[in-house]
Amino acid sequence: MIGCHTGHFFQVTASGGSYQDGLSCTIQGVPPGLYITEQEIYGDLLLRKPGADELSSPRKEPDLPIIYCGINAADTVEGAGNAFHTNGTPFTVLIPNLDRHFIHIKQYQDTNRTPRPGHASYASFMKYGPADDAIGAGIFSGRYTSTIVAAGAVAKHVLRKLGIDVFAYIREMAGVSCDEPDSKQALEYTERYKQMRRDYDPFYQEVYVGERIKRDMRFLEKTAVFAAIEKEINDIRSKQKEMKADEILDKYGVHHIVNCPDVKAADEMVRACSAITKQGDSSGGIVEVIAHGVPAGVGEPVFSKFDGELGKMLGIGAVKGVEVGAGFRVKDMTGYECNDRMRSENGKVVFDSNNAGGITGGLTTGQDIVVRLAVKPTPTIAKPQHTIDKYTLENKQLAAITRRDPTIVGRIWPVAESYMAIVLLDMLILNIGYQAVKEKVVKKSN
């Protein structure tokens, strides 16, 4: 399958499917000497996984990762202290499917002749034929985004060491939007929200904090633990503490379900989404992603402009639009209103606005990178819809009986955050390499 690979110097390859044995991502370009743990990766994966709250699919996949290769199995020299650190070789993360049961496979088998409107099922059948992985939509399922989140966790680990933060949150859901927050406050809010989710996630607490998985375990030892966990999913889930809205707001200062910096708006979002769900339908929204601390000049002209690379976020399932900065609003502005005028203050360049979203000419300006994604409603809904039999082309009726999300917005923001981190690190490595060569050339010329 062509198309499951991206990147120049930080390269990511995704594989697997919704009801295959699992998924994986292989990353090339991870610097050596980093201590990246499965606990850290899962800390991001748990934000995306299904079954976390009333606005996500009831599927019980824990999304527990296994680092399969790319790290040292022991100290390279006795006492070196580099055991389990990255070694510069391809870094692979496996994400086994642990909630894969025949009852759910049968539901897909019973409905796979009739493509679900809004899904890739008809188009993928036309491309791959009868052998198309149609159980749970295969690699076209939202489950494949777990590979992006895993790779993004690694990218963010590197970016933080370079003083760069990438974060995302829900700007709009089910027609309810929040006002534009201060980016620093939004970053702090998002970090508190993530901490809350880790504290309340029973798998995070039992598997990693409780050390059922330890770093010095071999792969087969970890898979043995996973085999046991597969039989204990319901028991572990039952240990989750009740997420009381008032207690979470008092302790963390965040909403208990929606990662939106405006708690009042988040409450309204949940109510609006729930009302639509009760009608058997679904809803969409907008996710905003911000990168803070990016130096000026990152990006390459013409075919690798930074905003052009970010446009690849349309590859995230359910994302139907990507805008940078003011985006489509620029059509209603004059040049004077749209231009981000600049001035010098204490030897630094300061901009009056950021309508460009931190990118001009495809190069970063040193301002925050601001991107918004339009997320469509979940295509699997309870309402009857007309479709076809993809083998006979007879007209048919379809009412979904498979597990589904009332809205995908709450599971897209971690993916968007990770995708931007992957693109940003890749472009940053390109720029650092270019600048290093430029400096050496200039020195020799002088």
Protein model, in words:
The protein is α+β, with helices and mostly antiparallel strands. It has a single domain, classed as Chorismate synthase, AroC fold, CATH 3.60.150.10. The protein is 36% helix and 17% strand. It is built from 12 helices and 16 strands. It has helices at residues 38-48, 102-111, 121-128, 145-161, 183-200, 202-209, 219-237, 245-252, 263-278, 306-310, 335-338, 409-445; strands spanning 5-6, 11-16, 22-28, 66-69, 91-96, 165-173, 176-177, 285-292, 319-324, 342-345, 348-351, 359-360, 363-364, 369-375, 385-388, 395-398. A 5-stranded antiparallel beta sheet has the order 1-2-3-5-4, sandwiched between helices. A 5-stranded antiparallel beta sheet has the order 7-6-8-14-9. Helix 1 packs across helix 4 (145-161), helix 1 (38-48) crosses helix 12 and helix 4 packs across helix 12. The protein is globular and about 70 Å long. The model has no long low-confidence stretch (mean pLDDT 92).
Please provide a brief summary of the model.
With 446 residues, the protein is α+β, with helices and mostly antiparallel strands. 36% of the residues lie in helices and 17% in strands. It is built from 12 helices and 16 strands.
Number of strands: 16
Major sheet strand order: 1-2-3-5-4
The CATH topology: Chorismate synthase, AroC fold
- Sheet with the most strands, sense and barrel status: 5 strands, antiparallel
Overall pLDDT, averaged?
92
Helix content: 25-40%
- Taking all Cα atoms into account, the compactness measure Rg is 23 Å
Order of helices and strands: EEEHEEHHHEEHHHHHEHEHEEEEEEEH
The level 1 CATH classification is Alpha Beta
Net shape: globular
Q: Helical region count?
A: 12
CATH homologous superfamily annotation: Chorismate synthase AroC
**Strand pairing plus helix content: what structural class?**
alpha+beta
Question: Residue ranges: pLDDT <50 for 5 or more in a row?
Answer: none
